[in-house]
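Subject: Predicted fold for Imidazoleglycerol-phosphate dehydratase, 192 residues

User T.R. writes:
Posting the sequence so we have a shared reference for the thread.
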Amino acid sequence: MRTSSVSRQTRETSISVELNLDGSGNSKISTGIGFFDHMLASFARHGLFDLTIKASGDLHVDDHHLVEDVGIVLGEAFNKALGDKSKIERFGHALIPMDEALSVIAVDISGRGYSIFKADFTCEKIGDYSTRMTRHFVDSFARAAGINVNVKIEGEDDHHMVESMFKALGVALWMATRKNEKRGVPSTKGML
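User M.O. replies:
I've generated the structure tokens; pasting them so everyone works from the same file.
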């Protein structure tokens, strides 16, 4: 089974993630940030990943450290669950609308973490979640997972924009992590 458990403990946060890439979209998420919990649950549901996240941290300061560290640990969990990355599709993409918003995401499980993020948010917060942390979450996840993630979001309502992005990320990663017995290691180099 393609599963992993990863934990990270710092002076600022305590994060644990359990991931099953071949799940059915079940999740148990607790970060202390309601909107972020909802986004991570949507990510798991649409990616068909079973995901448990327990996170706590210095939310009395702001949400930066917690969101960043969840991105790092979730990325590490993906990297660990993928193992040598053999027999996966490698590439994935999604175009996900939500009302007036549209998120376009492409991913490459290349072993080289990098992100491009284009979106213009108009409000500072959605509940207790800072909209600017969406970009930071994607970058932290991409670098820790060794995945290229390219994100473009358009829309007028920040809630819809962020939610469509998390759903699109789940769908794109579901596509890229799917098993394909014919592929071997999907690289001309012979390794990722």
